[in-house]
């Protein structure tokens, strides 16, 4: 009897400890919560601003303005709230030059209404910048021959839940699950999908190479060349809610050298080790579901999270929990040459936040969209650079920050 009572006390104390721990997290003391620090600076503080060519960013910003124009003026821009409302940006959108601008005119346009703000993880302004591209795969509408790897649309039982609708303290937090009868459960991980398929999801087509499909998942979009001569584009539609694991880390744990790790190295290892490739790819539990679209403009990229076509070397994927889509952002980093023998080059460039990604987490973190084709793949696959990030805000919004302001990062 005493032993049972002791066990009950231990259970109660354990539950109380868990509740207290979560309460501390929700109250966000400094030792649990990341901080975004925004510090207004001047354009002269941006490395290479005087020689940078922001014309591609001007095109990208114009596309974002078209998306903003469809929203209500009082709607928040997104992220943690530092970028104000849609109405705060419309004057800049209306001032976009009607004719093609020179590099100098594009710089003058951004300088006329914006002020750059340095982005920091608290007091640390250093972050990581990587690259991605629009992949291409070969596929067929029917399963035959080498065309055996399915590419799926979103399952009919997949749902995204806004936890804030049920618990006020979890406002802004979302999670994904699958409906099983009257229960919401975890969606299958990659290994289970590979083994059993997905009855609840439509198969869009069958690819001829599982490794290419895996990298399609990593990039989030791509072009499909079908065996009947037709082509299409597939864009990210949803994800299974399972955690993303970079398989480069898996290979490093298996003894592959860390130095020089890149998409090209990973792809070659998977091709050279066909017996182990599936097991390694399945260490990434995340699984992407796509939607198929026509290729309306071969020169434009796929639609990003903002719903507008991405612009090569001018569209940036960011953490949407932190940053607003549509905001111009200046990246000061390095990028590899398409020819590995030529090493790295300075990458001081104005871009626009127009996309997001499962691996893009944190305040000073960005993924540069490099476009479509072999050169884009060579650059994106090897890009991993330390760097700094600046966001351009309307002058009135930047003025409200004072000398510096910290924000809680959820």
What does this structure look like?
This protein has 410 residues and is of the alpha+beta class. It has a domain at 35-138 and 299-410: Barwin-like endoglucanases (Beta Barrel), CATH 2.40.40. It is 28% helix and 30% strand. The protein has eleven helices and 17 strands. It has helices at 2-27, 55-68, 90-94, 103-113, 190-196, 210-219, 247-253, 263-272, 274-281, 374-382, 395-400, and strands spanning 34-40, 114-121, 127-140, 149-152, 158-162, 174-180, 183-185, 203-207, 221-226, 231-239, 288-293, 315-317, 328-336, 344-355, 365-372, 384-394, 405-409. The protein has a six-stranded mixed beta barrel with strand order 3-15-12-14-13-16. Strands 5-6-7 form a three-stranded antiparallel β-sheet, with no helix packed on it. Helix 8 crosses helix 9. Residues 1-32 have low confidence and may be disordered.
- How are helices and strands ordered from N to C? HEHHHEEEEEEHEHEEHHHEEEEEHEHE
CA radius of gyration: 23 Å
CATH architecture of one domain: Beta Barrel
Judged by helices, strands and strand pairing, the structural class is: alpha+beta
Number of DSSP helical runs: 11
- At the fourth level of CATH, the homologous superfamily of one domain is RlpA-like domain
Strand content: 25-35%
Mean pLDDT: 89
User: Ends: how far apart?
Assistant: 45 Å
Basic shape: globular
CATH topology of one domain: Barwin-like endoglucanases
Q: Give the % helix.
A: 25-40%
Number of strands: 17
Strands ordered across the widest β-sheet:
3-15-12-14-13-16
Give the biggest beta sheet: 6 strands, mixed, barrel
Low-confidence stretches: 1-32
């Amino acid at each position: 009897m005493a032993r049972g009572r002791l066990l009950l006390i231990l259970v109660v104390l354990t539950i109380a400890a868990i509740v207290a721990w979560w309460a501390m997290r929700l109250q966000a003391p400094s030792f649990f919560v990341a901080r975004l620090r925004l510090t207004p600076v001047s354009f002269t503080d941006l490395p290479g601003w005087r020689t940078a060519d922001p014309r591609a960013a001007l095109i990208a910003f114009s596309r974002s303005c078209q998306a903003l124009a469809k929203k209500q003026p009082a709607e928040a821009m997104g992220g943690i709230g530092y970028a104000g409302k849609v109405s705060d940006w419309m004057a800049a959108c209306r001032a976009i030059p009607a004719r093609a601008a020179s590099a100098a005119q594009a710089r003058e346009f951004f300088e006329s209404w914006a002020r750059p703000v340095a982005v920091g993880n608290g007091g640390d302004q250093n972050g990581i910048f990587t690259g991605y591209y629009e992949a291409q795969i070969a596929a067929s509408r029917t399963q035959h021959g080498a065309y055996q790897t399915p590419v799926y649309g979103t399952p009919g039982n997949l749902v995204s839940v806004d936890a804030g609708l049920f618990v006020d303290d979890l406002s802004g937090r979302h999670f994904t699950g699958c409906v099983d009868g009257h229960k919401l459960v975890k969606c299958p991980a990659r290994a289970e999908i590979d083994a059993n398929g997905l009855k609840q999801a439509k198969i869009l087509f069958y690819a001829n190479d599982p490794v290419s499909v895996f990298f399609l998942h990593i990039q989030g979009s791509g072009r499909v060349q079908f065996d009947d001569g037709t082509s299409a584009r597939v864009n990210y539609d949803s994800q299974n809610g399972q955690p993303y694991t970079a398989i480069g880390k898996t290979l490093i744990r298996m003894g592959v050298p860390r130095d020089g790790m890149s998409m090209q190295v990973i792809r070659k290892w998977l091709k050279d080790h066909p017996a182990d490739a599936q097991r390694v790819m399945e260490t990434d539990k995340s699984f992407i579901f796509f939607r198929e679209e026509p290729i309306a403009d071969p020169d434009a990229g796929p639609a990003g999270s903002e719903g507008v076509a991405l612009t090569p070397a001018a569209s940036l994927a960011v953490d949407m929990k932190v940053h607003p889509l549509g905001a111009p952002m200046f990246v000061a980093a390095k990028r590899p040459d398409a020819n590995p023998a030529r090493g790295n080059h300075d990458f001081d460039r104005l871009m626009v936040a127009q996309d997001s990604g499962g691996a893009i987490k944190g305040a000073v973190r960005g993924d540069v969209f490099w476009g479509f084709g072999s050169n884009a793949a060579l650059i994106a696959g090897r890009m991993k650079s330390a760097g700094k990030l600046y966001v351009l805000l309307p002058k009135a919004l930047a003025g409200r920050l004072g000398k510096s302001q910290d924000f809680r990062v959820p």
